């Protein structure tokens, strides 16, 4: 069983204007096959035309495209028992 990855670089708060993209990034202690999940409030996010979820090695990114006022709220990234929120 692989050791659990931890979040070594936490999410930072992002301020965006309507119509802009908002980018959130965090970094894990190591690459992992563990399930990593992004949330807007309590809603799990999927990669689609409005949200782009990327994984590049230990760096996990979420891009919210052309944000609206409805996108205002807390973004969370969870992996295993670890969570970061911005």
From TrEMBL:
* Domain Ig-like: start-end pairs: 3-86
Which Pfam families does the record cross-reference, listed alphabetically?
Answer: I-set (PF07679)
Question: Keyword NAD, does the record have it?
Answer: no
What domain of life does the native source organism fall in?
Answer: Eukaryota
Q: Which Gene3D superfamilies match?
A: Immunoglobulins (2.60.40.10)
GO cellular component terms listed in the entry, alphabetical order:
cytoplasm
Subcellular location(s): the record lists: Cytoplasm
Listed InterPro entries: Ig-like_dom (IPR007110), Ig-like_dom_sf (IPR036179), Ig-like_fold (IPR013783), Ig_I-set (IPR013098), Obscurin/Obscurin-like_Reg (IPR052385)
For this UniProt record, the keywords arranged alphabetically read as follows:
Cytoplasm, Disulfide bond, Phosphoprotein
- Which PANTHER family does this UniProt record tie to the protein? OBSCURIN, SI:DKEY-31G6.6
Task: Tell me the protein's name.
Answer: OBSCN protein
Instruction: Name the species this protein comes from.
Output: Sakesphorus luctuosus
| The organism's taxonomic lineage, starting at the top | Eukaryota, Metazoa, Chordata, Craniata, Vertebrata
